[in-house]
Amino acid sequence: MIKIKERLFEPYIGEHEILERVTFLAKKIENDYAAKEPLLLAVLNGSFMFMADLSKAINIAVEISFMKITSYQGLHSTGKVKEIIGMTESVEGRDIIIVEDIVDSGKSMAYLLKMLQSLNPNSIEIASLLLKTTAMEENFNIKYLGFEIPDLFVVGYGLDFDGFGRNLNQIYRILQN
Ligand code: IMP
Ligand code: MG
Fold first, then answer.
1. Which residues have C-beta within 8 Å of that of residue 165, sequence separation ≥ 6?
2. pTM, rounded to two decimals
3. Which of 104, 151, 160, 162 is catalytic?
4. Fewer Cβ atoms within 10 A, N terminus or C terminus of the chain?
């Protein structure tokens, strides 16, 4: 059990199980992209640990990049506007693999897909460590999926609760009370 900001979390998916699954996904990517030069594009902050373990288990040359999706209040607009920062590579004609920690409603991913598609890559696939199937509202395929989980709040292995818990080497779920 671990306490983060007065909430209790219990172990859910262990380190060994995660690494086994991540390695399996890496081997799939290695096979599928053997003749290509893929660009692994991680969505910060949550996917930093997944990206590290995944990429280390891929034994072909890949390019790695990180970016961030931010929401900001436009100066003269009323709605929240999403913006992608940190992406400097040209993605035109590239084979992109988006690396995400978790897909919940799918809204963030749907936005990202739309934005990347407009930059004319050759292909886009998704690698996500976790998927909350119960919450998924959008319709896209996650080719490289770690684990499907119910609609429970989880932390660890990159995922945070209010900024904390990303360092934990396994995944914990919130204790219901
Ligand atoms: P979506 O747009 O609803 O799919 O939101 C996905 C984002 O919400 C993820 O990239 C996470 O940053 C965050 N998120 C969703 N569920 C959890 C969770 O259980 N723990 C930590 N972060 C989560
Ligand atoms: Mg995230």
1. 2, 4, 9, 155, 156, 159, 172
2. 0.93
3. 104
4. C
